[in-house]
Design a protein that fits this description.
The protein is of the alpha/beta class. Helices cover 38% and strands 21% of the residues. The strands form two sheets. It has an eight-stranded mixed beta sheet with strand order 5-4-3-2-1-6-8-7, sandwiched between helices. The chain has a six-stranded mixed beta sheet with strand order 11-10-9-12-14-13, sandwiched between helices.
Length: 394
């Protein structure tokens, strides 16, 4: 069964065609810089690897380009659109309405639209991807996999903010959590590897967006992101946790508008604000060359991660393993080393030589004597979406 997985972002569309249940990757690709004249289309199969630069004005045109490549007589992998049985869509915010993967109906689309106010950079584009896919592949089943679903197991003591109850009960202002598809995928991989009857692990998703989850016996019990994907850890351009009084000070004393504050905290802060660089590779290079601002930014960033490890270990009353995943978590030996140093009280002992090895497979990077396993597990959100979509309809 062919399942097309679509992750429709603000200016990009990631896609993979996966044959299930064998989990065979048939093709993959990315359309980025949508809306610009120099948009980039990447498309890869076992036989071809294409990169095209052209004008792609909107998501409709981007998805049509993907369909054309899938059906191309020479470069394509299917003969007609009906060979795609299911299309699995990543949807960032499902609020309290969706705790599981869901077959998309008109009512589901309306709910996704309603939650757009909570994820204005994501849900509208997720919905656009669904609408266009329905037009291009009318006979395929459309399935939504929600980033927030993995966090439906968060206890109420974690979900609720210390604000008037009416805001929680009537307006659903609470912790929702994000990157759930990634956290769920690496959690299952970790549990399969560890083979423990009971388990307490912390999954650390580090990319341009960052988050951490405390997981007990496969269920999330705490999470660093909240009402929106903006608090918690320091990210590429997002500040993470900050005293909310700073917002009032910016508005009342420095003359910022609320829109300017939002732009500042979401697009001009984080590692970019601390260093002038948003890409961690640039920051690590500059730090190695003696840039003091970059050195300090790495220390601030990893100090925040260490605090969450301590908090979650206390919340779970124990720790069996920590898992690094996503672009930075999988590839930055510098970040992993800084996070794990001076953490022997928690049984975390990093093997420096193992940490420096680059690999695309699950691996341990702890010493033989470390009480806590330190794992690197490459995430695969597209495969997780395909698996959940397949399970829903089978």
């Amino acid at each position: 069964m062919n399942i097309l997985v679509i992750n429709s972002g603000s200016s990009s569309i990631k896609f993979q065609l996966i044959e299930m249940p064998s989990e065979t990757l048939v093709c993959s690709g990315l359309v980025e810089r949508i809306g610009e004249n120099d948009a980039i289309l990447n498309y890869k199969t076992q036989q071809v690897d294409i990169k095209q630069v052209e004008s792609i004005k909107d998501h409709n045109q981007g998805l049509k380009k993907i369909e054309d490549l899938l059906l191309d007589p020479e470069k394509g992998v299917i003969k007609n659109a009906d060979e795609i049985v299911i299309i699995g869509h990543r949807v960032v915010h499902g609020g309290n309405s969706f705790s599981n993967t869901t077959l998309i109906t008109e009512a589901v689309k309306q709910d996704i639209k309603n939650y757009s106010s909570l994820a204005p950079l994501h849900n509208p584009n997720n919905l656009e991807g669904i609408i266009v896919a329905e037009q291009l592949f009318p006979n395929a089943k459309q399935v939504a996999v929600f980033d927030t679903a993995f966090f439906q197991s968060l206890p109420e003591k974690v979900k609720k903010y210390a604000i008037p109850n009416a805001l929680y009960n009537e307006h659903e202002i609470q912790v929702y959590g994000f990157h759930g598809t990634s956290h769920k995928y690496v959690t299952e991989k970790a549990l399969d590897y560890l083979q423990l009857k009971t388990s307490k692990i912390i999954t650390i998703h580090l990319g341009n967006g960052c988050s951490m989850t405390a997981v007990v016996n496969g269920k999330s019990v705490d999470h660093s992101l909240g009402f929106t994907p903006s608090n918690g850890l320091i990210m590429g351009t997002r500040a993470g946790d900050i005293d909310h009084a700073v917002i009032f000070y910016l508005v009342n004393n420095l003359g910022y508008t609320l829109e300017e504050v939002s732009t500042l905290l979401n697009k001009q802060s984080g590692m970019l604000g601390l260093t002038g660089y948003a890409d961690l590779r640039d920051i690590e290079r500059e730090a190695e060359n003696g840039n003091e601002e970059c050195k300090l930014a790495l220390a601030i960033n990893t100090s925040r991660i260490k605090k969450f490890i301590g908090a979650y270990t206390a919340a779970m009353n124990g720790l069996d393993a920590i898992v690094f995943t996503a672009g930075i978590g999988e590839n930055s030996d510098v970040i992993r080393q800084l996070v794990c140093e001076d953490m022997d009280f928690f049984g975390i002992e990093l093997d420096a030589s193992k940490n420096e090895v680059r690999s695309k497979i699950l691996r341990e990077i702890n010493t033989e004597t470390s009480r806590t396993k330190i794992l690197i597990i490459p995430t695969n959100e597209e495969l997780e979406i395909a698996k959940q979509s397949y399970q829903l309809l089978n």
